[in-house]
């Protein structure tokens, strides 16, 4: 995190990317101190930017509408300060065709497993597997370009590589929603890019 980065940006952005998360998860998303993040989250709650609630037995935080607006304002300030709008826009343009391929591959697997009673199996055809592998390799270069202007984008490729490795013995790692699966990471990256550029899906 650069010295100029607003302290509230990363906790708010982590909530946006994670959707609903406890304090520890919010802090871990960008490698921050949990105690510091807890104070920021309480402050965000007091300002109406975040709300603490319970879901599925877990107590965590999520953004409010005004919190999302504040997050977008801080992201715009960050991007302007870094002078990175042109580069992030270019990366997003390169990401779009990769995204289309990955989304199609994930949908293909989900439909196949749905027909099997929603039980992931080892029937991953080579073309589908190569789609994930190529996307990860291509993202490595895109991530390097992103982190050159916004270091907080670091880590996506490593997480995707781990998901692919895990999927070699447990195919659910490609699309499962209960873990850091390929699809979940990829969706998060897409949200990160469009949020940074102030776009909508």
Structural description of this entry:
By secondary structure, the protein is mainly alpha-helical. It folds into 2 domains: 9-82, Arc Repressor Mutant, subunit A (Orthogonal Bundle), CATH 1.10.10; 85-197. It contains 8 helices and 2 strands. The protein has helices at residues 9-18, 23-29, 34-46, 65-82, 85-115, 126-149, 156-167, 182-197, and strands at 50-55, 58-63. Strands 1-2 form a two-stranded antiparallel sheet. A hairpin with a 2-residue loop joins β1 (50-55) and β2 (58-63). Residues 1-5 have low confidence and may be disordered.
Summarize this, please?
Helix content is 65%, strand content 6%.
Biggest sheet strand line-up: 1-2
**What is the helical fraction, as a range of percent?**
55-70%
Q: What's the number of domains?
A: 2
Uncertain stretches of 5 or more adjacent residues: 1-5
State the end-to-end CA separation.
27 Å
- Counting H and I runs of at least 4 residues, what is the number of helices? 8
Shape: globular
What is the N-to-C succession of helices and strands? HHHEEHHHHH
Instruction: Estimate what percentage of residues fall within beta strands.
Output: 5-15%
Computed CA radius of gyration, to the nearest angstrom: 18 Å
Arithmetic mean of pLDDT: 90
| Number of strand segments | 2
Biggest beta-sheet profile = 2 strands, antiparallel
Instruction: Supply the helix-strand structural class.
Output: mainly alpha
């Amino acid at each position: 995190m650069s010295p100029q980065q607003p302290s509230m940006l990363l906790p708010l952005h982590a909530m946006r990317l994670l959707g609903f998360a406890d304090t520890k998860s919010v802090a871990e998303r960008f490698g921050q101190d949990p105690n510091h993040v807890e104070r920021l989250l309480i402050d965000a709650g007091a300002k109406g930017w975040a709300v603490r609630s319970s879901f599925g037995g877990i107590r965590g935080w999520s953004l409010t509408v005004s919190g999302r607006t504040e997050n977008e304002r801080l992201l715009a300030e960050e991007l302007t300060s870094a002078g990175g709008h042109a580069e992030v826009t270019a990366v997003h343009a390169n990401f779009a065709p990769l995204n289309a391929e990955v989304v199609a591959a994930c949908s293909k697997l989900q439909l196949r497993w749905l027909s099997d009673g929603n039980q992931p199996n080892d029937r991953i055809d080579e073309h589908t597997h190569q789609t994930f592998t190529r996307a990860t390799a291509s993202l490595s270069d895109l991530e390097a370009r992103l982190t050159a202007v916004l270091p907080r984008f670091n880590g996506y490729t490593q997480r995707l590589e781990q998901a692919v490795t895990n999927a070699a013995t447990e195919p659910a790692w490609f699309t499962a929603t209960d873990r850091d699966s390929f699809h979940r990471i990829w969706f998060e990256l897409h949200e990160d890019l469009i949020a940074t550029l102030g776009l909508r899906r």
